[in-house]
Give the backbone structure.
Amino acid sequence: MSDEKRYNRFSIYQRVEHILLIASFTILGLTGLPQKYMDSPISIWFVAVLGGIETIRIIHRISAAVFVLESVYHFAVIGYKLYVLRVKATMLPGMQDLRDAIQSLFYNLGFSRKQPKLPRYNFAEKAEYWALIWGLLVMALTGFILWNPIFSSNYLPGSFIPAAKAAHGGEAVLAVLAIILWHFYHVHIKHLNLSMFKGTMSRHEMQEEHGKELEEIEAGQTNPVPDPNVIARRVAIFTPVAVVFMVLGFVVVYQAATFEQTAITTLPLEQLNVQAYVPQTPTPIPPTPTPLPPKPTATPDTTGGAAAPTTWEGGIGAIFDSECSACHGAVAGLSLQTYADAMKGGSSGAVIKPGDPDGSLVVVKMKEGGHPGTFTDDEMALVLDWIKANAPEK
Amino acid sequence: MKNLYRYIVAPLGLALICAALALALTAWTVQAEAVPQESKPDNAYCLGCHSKPGMIKVLPSGEQLYLSVDADDFAASVHTKEDITCVSCHPTITAFPHQPVTAANRRDYTLTYADTCKKCHEDKIKPDGMHQKLMAGGNKNAPICADCHNPHTQPKLKDSNGNVVFIEKAKIAQTCARCHSTIYNEYANSVHGAAAIGANNPDVPVCITCHGVHEITDPTTNQFRLASPKLCGDCHTDKSMMAKYKLSTDVYNTYVADFHGTTVTLFQKNSPDAQTNKAVCYDCHGVHNILNPKDPQGGISIKENMLKACQKCHPDANANFPDSWTSHYIPTPEHNPLVYYVNLFYMIFIPGVLGGMGVFVLSDVFARLRHTFIKRENRKEKEQ
């Protein structure tokens, strides 16, 4: 078994390409899907493990750049094979692949006894390859729009950006599930096909999956190797084109990665320019919004005559009553409610000295200011006159 | 039997009565000693003067200190109802003439009462609150309890069941306005403020709805920013409340589903204190000056206004750019048709492709099982 003849399938370059694809595709999926399904606890956990959403986005973009650069290289290699070496374009799909697919299905279901003999790249592999190309185009295009939304909206309607996001997510789900269902089944589960890592395949595997190619190999039908001179001439044309293409590809990827900063970097947060402490001025007196009742003014009792009141009963008592007795009644160490109380004085002695207004404490207190209740100027004049006139009761 | 009564029960009863009397007497004297006879004046004594309007003391700074207390308001206040006396809070003022006021200005006078409320309301003192932190840092303008709650007029805020009674929302905003007047003026013109102040609407937020009451958090922190969409979402996802104003409750989900919202939500969940410039609700809608999006002046449903909001973070954004935001609509053929049809395409395309692949894979599995079975049958036949 071990010395069974092995058939070359993939060159070392192709195998390296495959490893690059595995790495970038896996990382893209792992860092992209948690962004699409961000409210799932698994996503939240995974984002935290990888160092937060900003880190994940950077990893995703690096992987995307690797994926696209790998594709640029791949297209250059295809150009070399098709133009310089003129190998058969064995990956192109055709009607035969459809027939093979249908026949395989019939065979599998037992409707047909004949197992189709499959070419170098069978329909399953072609489906996967072209799905990858389709995915690459969709993902690279929509990814570019998402990476550079402001640039993109210069040339496209703004609604293309959320649409690109929807397509990027939908295509991602399709790609990941297709890889799991189609690729994993065919090369891991059905039987473990290691040709992508070893580079070769056994005769038995060839019979089962590439029967037609095996027949061609055994019939000696191999790709004719062109004349070295012809190759040299073609290389002379191919090399500059390939170099330009690859440099262009690299520049585009580099531009896409560095083009726009506001959409991806964390600009310093513009602090709200609000002055928080701006007190209302002037502070209202009273400090409550309650409106004050109009201040009662002493209306001197003028019933006794037209002359100014010069006696306690003639009006001075009313002034003391309205201005003072609220406090100087029961409390405050002095009562000014009656003529007798007023003349008696309080805890600081007499407050009214008949004939001596300036020596009367009541006048001194009023002139000092700062006393809770105050006489109006008119009231003050009347009280002064009354004391000068020896403060009569009647 | 009589002897028993005479010699035991009667003296014992007498002794008990005497003991009870003696006890009562000592209890009474002890109590009498506890309250010195010089006594504290009752409220009526203080109100004898202080209910008189217009009592003003001029402080050394030239400011006027208002000394009057409205007797009716005071009678209706929670403190009168709970039998709190004037001297409970003004313990140094027990007689006339009063101890002289030493404060040089009104602020210093107010601050002499900084710890007064703590005696009964310890639970409301939140050292982590913004105001308390400022005060601890020596800022004299930081409010004490009495700056917001006038203790002479403060009504009871809770009913007998302990529920907060509805008070006029405008009053709350106006209370904050005493120190935050420019913010109040912005708020008063906003869709929320106009409803609170103009229409006394019970649903709209006032200052304390978002900022808290006694434990006001610093609104300039990263935490506050990252948690803010939930704050808005609390009301804006309330179906019954939003139905009254015909407002969509999809605003939060559609925000979270978008790039900004996804980032902010993940930041909030993974590292709540991370700094981000990704837009939160108030970056586009405004903070205190939130307008109705359809407001003809500044409403952000008008594209030019939205563009200005975009340009705050994306200065190069052009007139197409605002359309990249789905305006809180779940995609439908009317709103965001392109997104809707892309989603529809993948809803058909994904099961279509995977279904086709699945048919092949299952047929292959079936064929392999069948061949294994046939081989085994053949082997059995040979053995037989």
Q: What stands out?
A: The first helix of chain A runs from residue 12 to 36. Residues 145 and 161 of chain A are 6 Å apart (CA to CA).
